[in-house]
């Protein structure tokens, strides 16, 4: 193994000439990003709604726009980002080795990941899973699913949920694994499995759009738990972690303040001290983070607030048609909670 | 020959003989009757596939709403053609990626011309590849800089295949010679290297290169992901090519090398002018085999997040706006791979014909 590593290293050296080098800083990510003039974000290999290139190769999605928000805060340009497509196994090493500055890639905030070398910032999506089954099977709750086959997407937390549910209720579920969401959904509707497990926010719209007769299918929750999908950064750079956290928070706070892409300029005239501090009309927040004073204003100006980002990418204005559910603001019954910008 | 002629003259006058001839051809023996029935069954079974792919298909370019019929949705390929062929490459710089594809095809065609063989063709490829890499990366001559994370689609597939074979070939020659060398260290290292790499699956090698390698390197320098992937493919190609070339070396009679030694020709000159040209001619079919396998192996890079043509097609197929387009996407990519691999096959047949013509 050692010999092979040496050979590998030796052979990989010339490859540096081929494609240039990227530097990995243990600290000072902000300085590195500013010097480079571009941010590098880890992206998926195509998860519609969260991160996928469109027909022109332009990255779109909720996670992608979360990254763009940070780019606006740091560089003032939502397009000063390079997205590196990463597989599920690759994403954490890529962050640790400095290949990417930030990892917004539908990753659940877990203790093991947090303890083993990366830091999570603030959740940008709460995922909770549900099952859909044909009514003809006569099953309406998890406990009755003994021996069922379940269509599941690989590399997702849903795969783990199937396992947990199966163990907890001693159900002996057999997962049928697919490598993308749409394949799993198609397989379910063509009768390949007894049940489909996926993001509960999506199940209703999937049923509405893909089933021949939506009334033939029943939806019920898989677990009483929700998972927080959270963009992560490298350990050991507290300033960068703060910048990413508060850039994402700016989206959520803007929605709470009622600030939208359309009215953000009028809001600059606001008399509310919280809004004035948020938008940087009353200075202090930007300097504390090492950013320009109007970073939150710039983010909302470029991308809108969290609600707008949500609807555009995964909500009712998108083909996924997810409901806000847990992802609504706390004031609307969700768990998205804006922190204090002061 | 005479038989054919009598049949041909008999045909127009007596049609019953045609029927009986047909019966004889299709049902002459139990075996041919069985094969006939089997063929008919296969053709009948393929009719739905043909209807799906051609008759019921939606050929017209347009929005996803067109595709709600039972047939194939080729409008999807039309809409996603750019994404599948060029991946994430910026559309405004797309001509550069397109030029790279044209250059590779041009170089492959130039290689067909025997007069260029030898150092000249190697030089041509080296210059051509340098031009391609500059074109892809940009940053000079007023071209915008495109990081390797944005490279994608067909250019990546072709570049990875050509570069891994091209860079792997010299390494393979050294390994093959080393394995037959009388020096124990050279032989041991060559055997170890070849057997180690051949004993590992390519997927494993790619994982090591893409995920483990950066963790072992000093933290202040990382190698570009595409570079690491290429290194893994090159090592893999080298190990397999080495064994193919060794086969050719074993087919040579020792007399020629001994004669060259007796004449005082230096070792590397003997290898370059006497040994290699003959050894390689002997192993054209297995070399083609390895080349085709390597072209198809490049598709495995999708597991480490390189956006080759297959990754791009898969990503395009996940677009929820289109109803279930995976089959069309995979068929389209399969057709492209088929064209490339068939072309390599033809090329090797052409080479073999040339070798035969010269040796007679």
Automatic annotation (TrEMBL), chain A:
Biological processes, Gene Ontology terms: amino acid transport
Domain Solute-binding protein family 3/N-terminal: 38-267
SUPFAM superfamilies, per the entry: Periplasmic binding protein-like II (SSF53850)
Keyword Transport attributed: yes
Signal peptide limits: 1-24
Keywords: Signal, Transport
Pfam families in alphabetical order: SBP_bac_3 (PF00497)
Entry keyword Transmembrane helix: no
Listed InterPro entries: Bact_solute-bind_prot3, Solute-binding_3/MltF_N
Top-rank taxon: Bacteria
Family that this chain belongs to: Belongs to the bacterial solute-binding protein 3 family.
Protein name: General L-amino acid transport system substrate-binding protein
Organism of provenance: Salipiger aestuarii
Taxonomy of the source species: Bacteria, Pseudomonadati, Pseudomonadota, Alphaproteobacteria, Rhodobacterales
UniProtKB/TrEMBL annotation, chain B:
MF (Gene Ontology): transmembrane transporter activity
Record domain ABC transmembrane type-1: where: 154-348
Key word Membrane present: yes
GO cellular component terms, A-Z: ATP-binding cassette (ABC) transporter complex
Transmembrane segments: 25-50, 93-112, 124-146, 158-178, 199-217, 229-249, 300-317, 329-348
Pfam family, one: BPD_transp_1
UniProt xrefs under PANTHER family: INNER MEMBRANE AMINO-ACID ABC TRANSPORTER PERMEASE PROTEIN YHDY (PTHR30614:SF41), MEMBRANE COMPONENT OF AMINO ACID ABC TRANSPORTER (PTHR30614)
Protein name: General L-amino acid transport system permease protein
Native organism taxonomy: Bacteria, Pseudomonadati, Pseudomonadota, Alphaproteobacteria, Rhodobacterales
